[in-house]
Amino acid sequence: MLRSWLRAALGLGCCLLILGAAAPAAEAQVRLKDITAIEGVRGNQLIGYGLVIGLQGTGDQLRNTPFTQQSLAAMLERMGINVADARVQTRNTAAVIVTATLPPFARQGTPIDVQVSSLGDSKSLNGGTLIVTPLMGADGEVYAVAQGPVVVGGFKAEGQAQSISSGVTTQGKVPGGALVEREVPVALNAQSSIRLTLRSPDFTTAVRIEEALNARFGGGSASALDLGTVEMRIPPGFRDRLPNLVAQMESLTVRPETPARVVVDERTGTIIVGAQVRIDPVAITHGNLVIRVTESPIVSQPAPFSNGETTVVPRTQVEVDDQRGRRLAALPRATTLKDVVDGLNAMGLAPRDLISVLAALKASGALHAELQFI
Fold it and tell me: For this UniProt entry, which residues form the secretion signal (predicted)?
């Protein structure tokens, strides 16, 4: 049954993606670790400024990017080479911004990936090597140092009359290119409780998490503070075994509550219908006015040995189609997701037309769901 109406949706040209296609899927049990996060256990953003060297003539033009020239001169001066009065014309160096995320509980010497993005007018970072770059946090302290070859996913090849490019060549990654130098302390053992934050805040889901934790660790162990936070008091038997407590909490399963929502992407014509969407009985008629303008210019050539001139005579053809053949369609009450999909697909509308119909259904009050455009 599921495959049949999915084929019908694709056959009608409707780019319709369905989430929660049946009642059992909507009531699936999900682990706590997939819908919650522990408050305070998070990554930290790092940023740094550095130089990429070894480029094949695709680096920054030093006359256009003075900061690259200043950085290059400062680096050489630290190595004992004075180029203050010299005119450096290299095209093998590019100034870059280096970013990374310091994961929680990262210890000294732990390698992390870094992202490298060009700051000047470099054409490509392909084949370059990032030299030692300190990565700082929001407090200005250095938490990691990055260095290594830059891996670029795109490429660009050009000649005198043609060029070919694929992807972005002015940014890349250095896998495992940074080593952690400073640790961020997370004192979980000193806390008397753990707070779980929901990735999709909802009162019903928070209460279900509270009930699952109390059923596993005893009544009164957990309490829902609001729609996005559940506080778990550490039982006496887990004071010195906090990782074991967190592991048991994350393995518990609950049924998250999903709101009635229809998500529409107008750029691609994608429509996502939630499992809780309902539609009241309604009659719909929809038609489009299509105007086609075609330009077919004709070249008027003068007769041989005449004094005439060759001219271009414009020729325009206009076609109008108001699609009056549309019928009034009655959409019955839809109490399940399958009814909603079958009713919308039975109208035989293109994705753009279907988006307009959904917006009109929401305005009329017949669509009982949140309509969200992205």
Answer: 1-25
pTM beyond cutoff 0.70 = no
Q: What's the CA gap between 119 and 50, in Å, rounded? A: 10
- Cα gap 294→284, rounded to integer Å: 32
Task: Indicate the residue type of 55.
Answer: L
Hey, which residues does 53 pair with through a beta bridge? Answer: 129
Distance CA(71)–CA(103), nearest Å, equals 29
- Cite the DSSP H helix spans in 252-350: 337-346
CB distance 125 to 116 below 8 Å: yes
The residue whose two tokens read 């080593």 is 179
Distance (Å, rounded) from C-alpha 374 to C-alpha 272?
A: 11
The tokens for 108 are 């000294």
43 to 40, 80, 139, 365, 374: CA distances (angstroms): 9, 38, 14, 43, 27
Determine the length of the chain: 374
Q: Give which of 332, 361, 348 is closest to 273, Cα–Cα.
A: 361
Dig out the tokens for 297 from the structure.
Answer: 């210019």
- CA–centroid distance for 110 within its chain: 27
Q: Please state, rounded to an integer, the average pLDDT across all residues of the chain.
A: 79
Question: At 101, is the pLDDT very low, low, confident or very high (cuts 50, 70, 90)?
Answer: very high
Which residues, including other chains, have CB under 8 Å from residue 334's CB and lie 6 or more apart? 277, 278, 279, 340, 343
Q: Rounded to whole angstroms, what are the CA distances from 45 to 97, 107, 171, 193?
A: 13, 16, 18, 26
